Amino acid sequence: MADPYKIRPARRGDREGIAALLKELGYAEAADASTLLWVLNHPEVEVYVATDNLERPVGFVSLSHRPQLRLRGRIATIDELVVAEAWRGKGVGTKLVATAISRATALSAKRIELTTHHARLGYRKSFYERNGFVEIDCAVLRYKPLEK
């Protein structure tokens, strides 16, 4: 039986669907039209959406990739991964992660990383472990003066 969704590169017309998905994560002001266009046209960022049979986004993954000196190659980062609550548990997240991993592999990435929040209600460590990720001993620090 075929999946009730398909994965494809994101397009400008997906903005409302992507914005709704980000809102589910608590980012109500995210995915404005100009930022989405910037992201979609950036040479080191790729966004893939999972769509239902009416082409409405039900999930998406954003992958950035860039060269890194210490790795002597490319590093890839899954920047965002979200699946609509009604579509969770149906393989959408797994397929989106697999798409990002496949693309990073095709780009000869030496490492794929992602950052998530332990406190997030949707955090499922077992999901990431099933998809080949391991939690590492690392601190993420932010430069606070830039945050608004």
Contiguous uncertain segments of 5+ residues: none
Question: What global shape is seen?
Answer: globular
Structural domain tally: 1
Overall CATH class: Alpha Beta
Radius of gyration: 15 Å
Can you tell me about this structure?
- This protein has a single domain (6-146), classed as Aminopeptidase, CATH 3.40.630.30.
- A five-stranded mixed β-sheet has the order 1-2-3-4-5, sandwiched between helices.
- The protein has 148 residues and is α+β, with helices and mostly antiparallel strands.
- The chain has helices spanning 15-24, 33-41, 92-106, 125-130, and strands at 6-9, 45-51, 57-68, 73-83, 109-114.
- The chain has four helices and five strands; from the N terminus they run E-H-H-E-E-E-H-E-H.
Any chance you could write out the topology, listing elements then pairs?
Layout: E1 6-9, H1 15-24, H2 33-41, E2 45-51, E3 57-68, E4 73-83, H3 92-106, E5 109-114, H4 125-130
Parallel strand pairs: 4-5
Antiparallel strand pairs: 1-2, 2-3, 3-4
Question: Care to give the gist of this entry?
Answer:
The protein has 148 residues and is an alpha+beta fold. The chain has a single domain (6-146), classed as 3-Layer(aba) Sandwich (Aminopeptidase), CATH 3.40.630. It is 27% helix and 27% strand.
